[in-house]
Structure prediction request, 297 residues.
Amino acid sequence: MYFWIRRWFRTLPNYFLVLILNVILFYLFSGEIIEGLKLYFLFLQNFWTPQPDFYTESWSLSIEEYAYIIGPLLMFLSILIAKKASKTKLFLISSLLVIIISVLLRYQFHLSHSIDSVETWSKSLRKIVIYRMDSIYYGFIFVYIMNIKEAVFRQFNKVFFWTGILLFLGVHLLIFSTNMTPVNSRLFFNVIYLPLLSLNLLLFFPYAITITTNKQVEKLVTELSVLSYAMYLLNYSVVLLSIKYFMGFCSDSILIRIMALLIYCLLTVYLSKGLYRYFEKPMTNLRDKSFFKAKFS
Prediction:
C-alpha cells in the first residue's frame, strides 16, 4: 500500500492540476466543456477506446497507472491462492500473465479491426491501456534479471547496447525499405512491433546506468530529470497548443516560426520549474510524512 501512496503522490497531483488547467484553456479557446471529462479523472479515457485529441499526452500515464495497480493486485491474489509458493516465482508468473493477456488482446484486435492509417493505428491500439500493459512488465522482468545476473550485464553492457542499436536500425531499415505500415503489415505492427521496440529500449539500459560524466553535465541531466514529469504534462496541450492558438504556424515567416520555437522551449522549461517547485515537490514531500509511513508501510 505504501508503494501506491508514494507513486500516487508523485503522479496524481500534477496530473489533476494540469487536467483542470487544460479544461479551462479548452473552454477559453472553444467556449465548450470537453466531453467525457469524468473518464480522465479515472484514467479511463483510453482504457479500451481510442485516445481522444484532448490532453493527448495523458495516454501513457494511464497505462503506467493501471500497470502499477494491476501488478500488485495480481501478486496479492496469487499469494492468497498459493501461500507456500515463492514470491519471486509469483511475481514472474503475474508479470508473464499480464504480458500474455496483452499479446492475446492485440491479436484479437488484429483479427477484428481494420486500420486505414498510421494515426488510426496509434489512437486505436498503440495508445490503449489494455493493449499496452505488457510494455511496463517487460521492464519489470528485465530489471529482475539484471539484479540476479548483475555481473553478466555489467560485463557485457556494451554488447547489449550495440545489439540494441543494430536491432533498432535493422528493424526500421526493414520497415522503410519495404514500405511496411500498419495498413499493409497489420500483423507485424499490431502484435510484434511494439514488444520488439520495448525490448530494444531495454537493451540500452545496462550501459546507460554505467555512463559517467563531468559534474556540470550530471547536474544538467539531473535537473532535466527532476523537471521531466512537469515538462511531459505541460509541453503539448498547455504550451504548444496555446502558442498555436495565438500565433499560428502555417502562414508565418521562418522568423516567426523560430520565435515560436524559442517561446515554446522557454515557456515549457520555466512553467515546469514553477510547477515542480511550488506544487509537485511540496505534494511529493507529503508522502514521507510519518502519518503515511505508520498507516501504510
